[in-house]
Amino acid sequence: MKHQHVEQVFVTFIRANKERFYLLAYSYTKNEQDALDTVQDSIQKALQSLHTLQNEEQLKSWFYKIVVRTAIDFLRKNKRIQVMDDEQLGFLSPPQNDTYENMDLEDALDTLPPAYREVIVLRYFEDLKIEDVAHILDANVNTVKSRIYKALKLLKIQLTKEELS
Amino acid sequence: MDKLKKLEEKYRNVPIPENLDAVVEASLKKGRKKRAPKWVLGATAAAALFTASLNMSPAMAKTLGEVPVLGSVIEVLTFVQYETDKDNYSAAIDVPQITGESDEIRALNEKYATEGKALYEQFQQDMKGMEQADGGHLGVDSGYIVATDTEQLLSIGRYVVETVGSSSTVMQYDTIDKQKEIILTLPSLFKDERYISVISDYVIGKMQEEMLATNQEKIYWVKGGGMPDEEVIDAFTSIRPDQNFYITEDHKLVIVFDKYEVAPGYMGVVEFEIPTELIKDLRMSDEYLK
User: Fold this and answer.
1) Residue A88 and which of A35, B65, B69, B167 are 20 to 30 A apart at CA?
2) Which chain A residues touch B43 with a CB distance below 8 Å?
3) B11 vs A contacts (CB less than 8 Å)
4) Is A106 within 8 Å of chain B by CB?
5) pLDDT 10s per residue in chain B (290 long)?
6) Chain A residues within 8 A of B8 when measuring between CB atoms
7) Which residues of A touch B31 (CB under 8 A)?
8) Contact (CB<8Å) A40/B34
9) What residues are paired with B155 via a beta bridge?
10) Which of B1, B14, B20 lies nearest to residue A18, judging by beta carbons?
11) How many CB pairs lie under 8 A apart between chains A and B?
């Protein structure tokens, strides 16, 4: 009975938010077909492990995590990106003050390294709490905070201290 | 902050593909289907436990006996679904399962499961064959309908529609006495074999009547319906002793013929309700047919 209920909640949640999942997937894959595949795989993975979901409040961040992982897996398989740790990333990323200085705002997000882009997407566009973003990305809260901070800097966006936390 | 808004706008402005809906719905369906076996396992386990506790504790049996729903415990569920949808090939096969404890019902379920599986395997084989050749169209649609479901009776019809160019439809009914958990066969409803000729004569009469009344818009393979005799090849003369049938809610016997069996394809599956008056003396009892 309980299981059926969870499944019902899940189905409703998916139907109501499918566009958001697509956009999130698209922000990784940058391609329509791959984004659709990601959404499809994510739903199926989720249905198969629905029983691992502890409570309904976690549904959103739980499913986002699946989407993010599926999208990253997808990219990895297709070798479109290389996954780097923060150190490498810092080393390889262009110094923040010149390369991004004159970039077109329209493309700004796309030119951000994925690790910075995803925190912006999840925190500001998907309106998730820092804790949830950390959970989704399997990172600790401080890492997420510093990535957001750096991403905003790269985007040359000034936020007040309150907006940051 | 404005910048962030603009970025968000851009993020949201990615066009949503038209088929997102379809993809989402299909994965919701597929994902759930994959877990069906688990569910079936659970249901069987629960049923086993239920019987076990009935047997073990007379007190429990008694308590349950007083629960009115127990009488209607027999119902039809979808046991497995097979699905393939690939270019010109599609299969959708729903296999029913009847809940019930008797050996007869168990055997029936087994038959459903085996036939459903065989149908799907045959489809896959045919599909492979066609793919290796020049390709083609192939469709199998199989499922079931509940024709009657009363306190006493359950009639379910399983259909198979095979589409290769044109389509053929096979309908197979089973009727169950829910209280006794037994399967009713056509011969079991009658005292002796006289029902065969009585019903056949009635059906032939009905066919002729309909043909004449519609000026041969309806056609059956019988003589005497207004078609030249020489055009009626392989005329229908008699039902089979185990002809397909079901029993309606108001206890009428309905005789069923598959597509092509007694009429041209456009007539589809053909049914005739037999007036009980006609067969009342031939009945084994007035329990089922009234």
Assistant:
1) A35
2) none
3) 23, 27, 109, 121, 125
4) yes
5) 577 888 888 888 888 888 888 888 888 877 554 433 333 433 444 444 444 433 344 444 334 433 333 334 566 766 667 777 776 778 888 888 888 778 888 888 888 888 888 888 888 888 887 777 766 677 888 888 888 888 888 888 888 887 765 667 788 899 988 888 888 999 999 999 899 999 999 999 999 998 888 888 888 888 888 877 777 777 888 999 999 999 998 899 999 988 778 887 777 788 999 999 999 889 888 888 88
6) 124-125
7) 43-44, 46-48
8) no
9) B148, B175
10) B20
11) 81
Candidate from B8, B17, B20 with C-beta closest to A125 = B8
**Is the CB of A44 less than 8 angstroms away from the CB of B31?**
yes
- Enumerate residues 6+ apart whose C-beta is below 8 A from A17: none
Q: Which two tokens stand for residue B220?
A: 């059956």
Asked if B11 and A121 come within 8 Å (Cβ–Cβ), the reply is: yes
ipTM above 0.85, yes or no: no
How far is A35 from B155, CA to CA, in rounded Å?
46
Test A32 with B4 for CB contact under 8 angstroms. no
